[in-house]
Design goal:
Blueprint: H1 8-18, E1 23-27, H2 34-40, E2 46-53, E3 75-80, H3 86-104, E4 108-113, H4 130-142, E5 149-153, H5 159-173, H6 190-203
Parallel strand pairs: 1-2, 1-4, 2-3, 4-5
Helix pairs in contact: 3-4, 3-6, 4-5
């Protein structure tokens, strides 16, 4: 369910998984990717990570949703409040997502790269900049080998923001320095990240 007729990232992830590859899907679109989550809910070959504004359409993506019985811990949701800035996303990636990714050891990173989490987007209230998206892209790429990060454009309803963010992400992935906007900081959401990390710790088996 969502604004797309075809979930390109899910199709690619399923094809790679069918070939025996471990796939990380990073979804920083402002909306929770409930379709992608549903497809891979009980599939241990795919680790799905979603950062999204909450509350917001479609109303899913709770931190307590960590995957089906055969794939516990391969579904990570980080619901964030309106106004969350880049430093909060970086904190989520470093403190919550990175340890899970390290254990999963993916061979590919597929990014559902919606830029509607940009502060200029008219449909939501997160507060990222082009520089923030570039920093997140570098983090995602660092979790897999060179040449194994695929970025797929998804949401984004302010054309200037989409243009700046797209350029910054691809510059970052290619080792460039184009950052038309500086990273952001100071917004709310660190407690939401801590709450999501605690929910994951409580719900997963083991130490």
């Amino acid at each position: 369910m969502g604004f797309c007729l075809l979930n390109s990232v899910a199709v690619a992830a399923a094809a790679l998984a069918q070939r025996g590859q471990r796939v990380l899907v990073v979804d920083w679109d402002v909306h929770h990717g409930n379709g992608t989550e549903s497809i891979f809910w009980d599939d241990p070959r795919v680790l799905y990570v979603s950062t999204h504004q909450s509350p917001l359409y479609p109303g899913t993506g709770a931190a307590a949703d960590v995957g089906g019985p055969a794939a516990l811990g391969t579904n990570i949701n980080v619901p964030l409040p309106p106004g969350a800035t880049g430093d909060v996303f970086a904190y989520a990636f470093d403190e919550l997502v990175a340890p899970v990714v390290e254990r999963f050891s993916p061979q590919w990173a597929l990014v559902s790269s919606g830029f509607d989490a940009h502060r200029a987007d008219p449909l939501a209230q997160l507060a990222l900049s082009a520089g923030d998206f570039a920093a997140l892209a570098v983090r995602a790429a660092s979790w897999v080998g060179p040449g194994r990060t695929v970025v797929v454009l998804e949401g984004g309803y302010d054309l200037a923001a989409v243009s700046a963010s797209t350029g910054a992400v691809f510059s970052a992935l290619l080792g460039g320095s184009s950052r038309p906007e500086a990273p952001t900081s100071g917004g709310p959401g660190r407690q939401a990240v801590d709450d999501a990390r605690e929910a994951l710790r409580r719900l997963l088996p083991g130490p």
